[in-house]
Design goal:
Blueprint lengths: L3 H15 L2 E6 L5 E3 L2 E2 L6 H7 L7 E4 L9 E5 L4 H7 L4 H8 L4 E4 L3 H9 L4 E3 L9 H13 L1 H4 L5 E3 L2 H9 L3 H24 L6 H14 L4 E2 L4 E4 L20 E6 L1 E2 L8 E6 L6 H19 L7 H18 L7 H6 L26 E2 L2 E2 L7 E4 L2 E4 L19 E4 L2 E5 L4 E3 L8 H4 L2
Parallel strand pairs: 1-7, 5-6, 7-8
Antiparallel strand pairs: 1-4, 2-3, 4-5, 9-12, 10-11, 11-13, 14-15, 16-19, 17-18, 19-20
The chain binds glycine and manganese (II) ion (2 copies).
């Protein structure tokens, strides 16, 4: 877990970027999924990033227009034994004041009456409209009341901005504490992939493999899977977000496993490995695997400061397409295949995404036509794949697919950190070379 100073430093930076805008950042709420049962609580990552506070419904105010000592205010659920006996421990106002470096804390039920006071003197409000419907009416009403009084008060918050560009720009660049956590999340995730490859045998169910992976996540004290683990044998691997995980793994199948853990402070791993369950690639499986591995390694070599995620994607894409042309699954020259998107029945996703507190982490990839440059401290996935099935029509001018290729889905995904001069592959402990996958 983070030292409280980690959150304090982030708040200072956030406050300085807010200028004289009042920031309102709500915690997540519990979500019901059937009758009155709730999903396990998952904190809002923006809220977590600034507070390190893991209870639902809280609201954090960041008030750079107020004097020091009144700039960070946390509204929290009250201590209430009759509620805690059902849903567990709450810190309450006193606990928060003593343990979380907040400057002021109130019971949540005081927010409607106190919000107006805290907005007084702010030039504007930084609040993400559309994401917090339970809170939005109160905020708009309070803001409107300030505007109503403007002729006599002479001062009111005049505009509302989204805090995301500030916060997400901060979250995109990981500091040394975060890097250490990301290393751990990737390491535990990689260990699980190694374990499951040793365990998997023909005749098992996909769910047996899922259980092995997720048991390791829990054994290591993480919260469990960061997202619905994908354990897809044979043709199931051609469904990108396959999560049924309930089919038998047959002799001769490849198994694609896309799984990563989420640490107790929400940093995530996101790794995909594909291997032959009987320990031997078929000729076609091997040909495709080699293309994807080559594409992935070429793309990872492009991850360095000054390059950008678009170039990383394009390098992987060109490599995949040229390999697919070599084996006859595509025809034409690489550039025109790209221009006509004539590969999209075989490769239909981007090559990666930012990774952090969210699996598909926040942060811009481009600003208009400008592709954001990679900088040390950014973490992204590199995850090319090929999925050969009948699900999508073959684009005009491209060859029909021979039966021997169908039902092969392969993706190889690593988590990579941009370093000062190149890259650190955080998930390197999960083997991906052919020689390591065969037995
Ligand atoms: N596991 C989701 C993804 O790879 O993007
Ligand atoms: Mn991914
Ligand atoms: Mn993944």
């Amino acid at each position: 877990m983070a030292d409280p100073s980690v959150f304090c430093r982030r708040r200072d930076i956030f406050l300085s970027h807010l200028g004289s805008y009042a920031g309102i950042i709500p915690a997540a709420q519990l979500v019901t999924h059937h009758a009155d049962c709730e999903y396990p609580f998952r904190q809002n990552s923006d809220f977590w990033y600034l507070t390190g506070f893991d209870e639902p419904n809280a609201v954090a105010l960041f008030l750079p227009h107020k004097p020091k000592g009144e700039q960070y205010v946390l509204f929290v659920l009250p201590k209430e034994s009759s509620a805690e006996v059902w849903t567990g421990f709450r810190w309450g106002v006193k606990g928060v004041l003593n343990n979380f470096d907040v400057e002021i804390s109130h019971n949540l039920n005081e927010l409607p009456t106190l919000l107006s006071h805290y907005l007084e003197g702010a030039e504007g409000i930084a609040f993400r409209v559309g994401k917090h419907p339970h809170l939005e009416p109160l905020i708009l009403k309070t803001w409107s009341e300030h505007l109503q009084k403007l002729p006599r008060s002479g001062f009111a918050p005049l505009s509302m901005i989204a805090p995301c560009p500030i916060l997400h720009d901060m979250r995109l660049r990981k500091d040394s504490f975060e890097i250490q956590r990301m290393r751990l999340a990737s390491k535990i995730s990689a260990e699980a992939h190694e374990l499951v490859r040793g365990f998997a045998r023909p005749g098992m169910n996909e769910r047996d493999l899922q259980a092995t992976i997720e048991k390791h996540f829990l054994d290591k004290g993480t919260r469990g899977p960061a997202y619905g683990s994908i354990v897809a044998a044979g043709d199931n691997a051609c469904v990108l977000h396959y999560t049924a995980n309930n089919a038998q793994v047959k002799n001769g199948d490849l198994v694609l496993i896309d799984a990563g853990c989420s640490l107790d402070d929400y940093y995530n791993g996101d790794i995909t490995r594909t291997f032959p369950v009987n320990g031997k690639f078929s000729e076609e499986q091997k040909a495709l695997y080699e293309i994807i591995l080559g594409a992935q390694e070429a793309a990872i070599r492009c991850v360095y400061p000054g390059n950008n995620a678009e170039n990383v994607h394009m390098v992987a894409l060109k490599h995949l397409i040229s390999g697919l042309v070599d084996i006859g699954l595509l025809v034409g020259d690489v550039d025109s295949i790209i221009e006509q998107e004539a590969y999209s029945h075989l490769y239909m996703h981007r090559t990666g995404h930012w990774l952090g507190l969210d699996v598909h982490d926040v942060g811009a990839y481009r600003l208009g036509d400008y592709h954001l440059e990679l900088e040390p401290g950014m973490v992204l996935t590199v995850e090319p794949g090929i999925y050969v099935s009948d699900r999508l029509a073959v684009p005009k001018g491209q060859p029909e697919i021979e039966a021997k290729w169908k039902g092969i889905g392969i993706r190889i995904e690593d988590d990579v950190l941009v370093t000062n001069d190149s890259v650190e592959v955080l998930s390197k402990d999960a083997a991906k070379q052919l020689i390591d996958l065969e037995r």
